[in-house]
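Example (one chain per record):
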Amino acid sequence: MRTRNWWLAVVAAAILLPAPTWGACCYFSAKNADILQPSQKAFITWDPERKLESFTVQPKFEGNALDFGMVIPTPSQPKLHEMPRDFFKHLAIYSIMKNREFPQSKLLPFRGGFGRAGGMPLARAMAERRDANGIEPRKPAVVVLEAGIVGSLDYKIIAADRADDLFQWLKDNKYHYSGDEATLNHYVQKKWLFTVMKIDTMQMKKNKDGSFAGEVTPTRLQFTSDKLIYPLKITQISVKDKTEALFYVQAPFKVDLQGDMSYRYTWLPMLQAASGCTPGGLPGRGGDWLKAIAGDIPDILKRGQALGFNFQPGQRPLPNKQGHIPTTMEWARRLTASDLRVLQGQAPYSERIPDVDEGFTQADVKDPQRLAAVIKVIQARLARARQERPFGYLTRHAPVEDVKNLRHLAGHLEEGKFITKFRKIFARDEMSDDLVMVAAREGQNEDFSEYEEILPTSPP
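Predicted structure:
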């Protein structure tokens, strides 16, 4: 069995054939078939007051499959809900980074503008069996707590007191789990529950060769938890070398990973490097954040160097000698009422750059009697734009229909909550325990810096 590395998305276990190489938490299986796992992402919410966590997942898959499925461990019994089909596409559109651009004339003999020459952007992105005495074995002590259908998924929520019982139950019910009992035991000992899902392939697209490809309906699982946790260990046995994860986390605060998995080793040097080449200062209160933790920065950078995390402006981080790659923050913002109005089309998705050539044509500039007047008007418009936006207009671009479809995010994104989007490529030896997410902070200082605008030092 072969699978591609994919973006980690959910808290889930695999149901696969032996000796696979797949991505991360949520795995799909096909009996006697190859499965490819192209990509996946997770939208996670956390309410620390109510100790309530949820995650939404929409796995992609393709393969010669008649029976797909997955197993998802959670610390308590979840409630399942169907989500909008293109939920993750809408999140991606909503979190497109903004860029500073400047108006320019296409009619003047020169490319007028302000900021950089030519009006260029300020920044670029980015067995059945008996025992020896002939005694029938006891029935597995596995209890089905709930069963139902959500979207295109048939699910059961089960509890087990013993890992060997659970392992046998999965086998008896034709879930071809490729892991070992020890992996299951990690969660059984913590008294976690398991949501088992199968996909109705009748709803999937069938290729000419009989394989299936597509996405299941996005599904949200909501449950209580003492902490914001992502069951990472269960994926370790299924990963050959590494797997990539993209997380969107909505919480009352900005979120980070613990210890050496923190994104501080890329975020802080990126802010520092951009400090001297960002007219008007660092956006998103980045400069204020650097000042607040000035005394901690030398130790953070020293630790980053010791880990072999060497930041290079404008580049994606490279692995160190151990093959570990630092986490990168991709987007971060505390949502305001204005941000949420964008979802309903009541606020602009992007600032509009003035058309300084409006009302004029090529014929006007070719007319010697009109040229001087045309130049004067266009230059006056450029000067006014320079005065209104001395550091450029914040722009981003997406198809009109995609922007309209952002309304499907309404009710899922909350005013006053921080959304942190970050990426982590996990090496296999980094998956020996579950992943705990925490409030982003340095000492007593909470990280309040936002990141929605491309910096000169941003990676592509």
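Caption: The first helix runs from residue 87 to 94.
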